[in-house]
Design brief:
The chain has 331 residues and is α/β, with parallel strands linked by helices. It has a domain of 151 residues: Cobalt-precorrin-4 Transmethylase, domain 1, CATH 3.40.1010. Helices cover 57% and strands 8% of the residues. The chain is built from 14 helices and 5 strands. The protein has a 5-stranded parallel β-sheet with strand order 3-2-4-1-5, sandwiched between helices. Helix 7 packs across helix 10, helix 7 crosses helix 11 and helix 10 crosses helix 11. The longest helix is centred in the middle third of the chain and has 34 residues.
């Protein structure tokens, strides 16, 4: 049942859509400070509150979490300590990941997937994660030894499985967030940019479409760079198509996005850049790679694929830009 509230007491809800890079911390902090409650995109951790209070060192808190972006996570913890000290409420709300961690612990105790009750939330979470992870591993495998067409098919399959996982993840999160949000005059909901559908789901759960506002945190930075557009790479564009249109038939547009995604994944910077965050090095890199791969046709991707499939990022990027220059696409 959608959560209903009196329109006069509708909380102001900001869905902050951002990439997880250190340069975004200042922008995230600015938005968080404008709200009474902050809802993080992470499962609850027992040492979270002691970390906020300073009783647990940040690195000790992060060590067992296996975070993907360490510098971002450190900077976020420092920000959250300041936010907490200012009296803001901070919640960790990510049911999908919370359930998934529980499943991992369940298996570590000697249980198997057959032991998961199929009428429980564990089963759809396990199934969605297994299908998406399996499709991703299949893509990695075929990308190393398969043909371009086989790789294209693999990434299209992964995008559909990944979209199904995101639909479930965002649905569970919206359901968990709704009763918590209504207890606060205003709320900031942290989310990665791929979770754009969470905006619609929150509007449905709260039954107050005017109370939820999506904000792409990088937009103001892009405007200052005189750079229009968005920060969705071709793979994310494809996944979003399937998130919002799960039964849509495959088209040449989808195949082109998949082909560009194969090339984009090889040339985009993978490591955190520890330079002046005010220069926004990651945003600039992502924008440049999105624009550059957006010039490629299907045949361009087919020709580039064998040249860069086994190359590391720097080498792949050099080959890529030499190709663009040679074909006249760089101008």
């Amino acid at each position: 049942m959608p959560f209903k509230k009196n329109r006069k007491s509708t909380p102001q809800i900001t869905l902050g859509l951002s990439v997880h890079r250190p340069e975004m911390i200042r922008l995230i902090g600015t938005w968080m400070q404008r709200h009474d409650a902050i809802f993080l995109e992470e499962p609850p951790e027992s040492n979270f509150l002691p970390m906020l209070r300073g009783a647990v060192p940040i690195d000790d808190y992060l060590m067992p979490l296996d975070v993907e972006y360490l510098e971002f996570s450190r900077a976020m913890c420092r920000l959250l300590r300041n936010i907490h000290a200012a009296g803001k409420k901070i919640y960790q709300v990510e049911p999908f990941l919370e359930v998934l961690l529980g499943i991992h612990a369940f298996f570590a105790d000697g249980h198997t997937p057959d032991d998961l009750p199929q009428n429980s939330i564990q089963w759809p979470v396990y199934r969605a994660e297994r299908q998406a992870t399996g499709a991703l591993l299949a893509y990695y495998q075929v990308a190393l030894g398969g043909s371009f067409e086989q790789t294209l098919t693999a990434i299209l399959r992964f995008a559909r499985a990944d979209a199904a996982r995101f639909r479930l993840r965002d649905s569970l999160r919206a359901q968990a967030l709704a009763p918590l949000i209504e207890k606060n005059p205003s709320a900031y909901v942290e989310a990665g940019v791929i979770h754009f559908q969470l905006w619609q789901l929150l509007r449905q759960q709260l039954n107050q479409p005017d109370g939820v506002r999506p904000v792409f945190l990088a937009d103001d930075v892009l405007k200052k760079m005189n750079a229009g557009g968005h920060l969705y790479g071709p793979g994310d564009q494809l996944t979003l198509l399937y998130i919002f249109n799960p039964t849509i038939a495959e088209t040449e547009r989808h195949r082109l996005l998949a082909a560009r995604a194969i090339i984009y994944a090889k040339i985009i910077g993978k490591e955190e850049i520890n330079t002046d965050p005010c220069t926004f090095p990651h945003l600039r890199d992502e924008l440049a790679c999105i624009r550059a791969t957006g010039k490629l046709g299907l045949q361009d991707c087919r020709e580039l694929f064998p040249l860069i499939r086994r190359a590391q990022t720097d080498e792949a990027r050099q080959i890529f830009y030499e190709y663009l220059s040679g074909t006249g696409l760089q101008t």
